[in-house]
Amino acid sequence: MGFDYGKFERSASLGAFPGCSREVLKHAACRYGIASAQPSEKRKALRKSGITHKQLQAQIKSARNLRGFLGRVHQDARLVAANSIPHPSILLWKKDLDDVEDFLRSLTPFRPDAKDAALALVLHVKQRSGRRRLPEIVKLLNAALSVAGLPGSLTAEALQKQIARANHQRAAKMLRSWESLVPTKKPQK
Question: What element of type H or E holds 88?
């Protein structure tokens, strides 16, 4: 089940945060809901993405095997003499397959930490309004949880614990990236 952004906007009370960016509020709450719904175990998260761990490993092996095969073709004098083998192309293909293998090895499903998104939201609200406003934030996050198919039973105390355990650097970086997406208002003449 995907996250229904339209349903979230209809159910969330973004007007409860005067001075705050509606876009940042939406990004933070949606990220929190989506992150909370993701499985924590890599194999389950991959499966939810439509890719199994076994399929991923098979593709990594295929890239490695094709790179090795190209290397053998490139070095076989009987094949090189009989065919017009473009040496620079083979070297580039081998490098590309190396990059493909590295990419597939590094592939991990989207499993962000929901508490970092919650802290980023709290930081934004505090910067813009001067107060943390945890009860209003809890309502916003519960709306996101509900849309993500989870029980919207977050409390202010639970949120307080989550943001205390969150990574402040990741949350601040996340907030900066969301704020950079917000269109700036053009000065009126």
Answer: helix 87-106
Alpha-carbon span 41 to 46, nearest angstrom: 9
Alpha-carbon distance of 72 to 31, in angstroms, equals 47
Tens-digit pLDDT profile for residues 40-85: 666 666 777 788 878 888 999 999 999 998 888 878 767 766 677 7
Distance CA 82, CA 79 (A): 5
Give the integer Cα–Cα distance in Å for 151 and 43. 24
Q: Which two tokens stand for residue 49?
A: 């993405």
Distance of alpha carbon 66 from alpha carbon 120, whole angstroms? 44
Contact (Cβ atoms closer than 8 angstroms) between residue 142 and residue 153? yes
Domain map (residue ranges) of the chain: 5-38+112-181, 42-106
Query: Side chain identity at 145, as an amino acid letter?
Result: L
Q: What angle do CA 90, 95, 75 make, to 5 degrees?
A: 40
CA distances from 86 to 75, 79, 112 (A): 12, 12, 44
46 neighbors 56 (Cβ within 8 angstroms) = yes
In sequence order, the 6+-apart residues with CB closer than 8 A to the CB of 128 are: 17, 19, 20, 21
- Write out the two tokens for 135: 């009860």
Q: What is the pTM of this model?
A: 0.62
Asked if 160 and 134 touch (Cβ cutoff 8 Å), the reply is: yes
Cβ contact 135:156 at 8 Å:
yes
